[in-house]
Amino acid sequence: MDASRIERIISLLYISSAVLSLTSLICLVTVWQYWTSIVNFCINVDCGCILYARSSFNSFMGGEVILCHFGVYGMIPPLIFGLCLGGYHGYRCCIHKNLDAPVQVTSRNLETDDGPAVVVRPKRRAPCKQWTLASFLTILLFFLSLTHAIITTDGYYKTCEQYRKRLIQVLNSAGRETEVIHDRLSCGAMFDFMDYLQSDPDTFEYKKIDTGFALRLAIVSSWLNCCAWILAFSLNVIAARKRFCCWTLQIDPPEDDAGAIALASIRSRHQTE
Asked: Which segments cross the bilayer (predicted)?
């Protein structure tokens, strides 16, 4: 795989990571701000996060707000670096600034049997040299995204399990009904019950939300974000190994130097005559 193709793929991965990070961030901040005043029943502790919520005897309390802080602000570094790196590699791959113009870049005088010859090489974009630094950066962002995905996923299922207990209390369920709630109803159904039974009655008529869908979209975006960063890391490692093994990595394939020498020699001969 040549450097041009690597940079095109990496650019798409970086941009995809930025889009996925933004999607996860928007979903989590929307759910967090919607539920923060409804589930924050703790004393002297801010527990307004919908992740890792807990069912108590007479209320449903949220998890510690630091979890939602990480869920939202933890996506900012992948978003920023994804946009910056994606824009950089995208510019190198898509914007060819006067690279096709026959501009003399380097020259050297040669003495031949027919007189002096001038060697002219084509103008080329310099190859990217920061593959190693990019590899370290992408692996750090991968671990950050992986931690974010694990916490978001685990918090989603912990809240789901806790609300099963709360739903049994609210509905005064017993017997088979309790068994159905525990064994048959999915987490999506649990969050649907939460949206209708646990929401603020004063604002429900004009302020509705699909909590389950928003959290599932955030989880899927987080895991896809992890995949994008690990693929970007792999491609950066491949490019770095090629560079350190003295393999030529160039955006534009080199033209035939022999042809350039011949053309320059002919032009020089005509000028001499």
From this structure: 12-35, 70-88, 131-151, 213-233
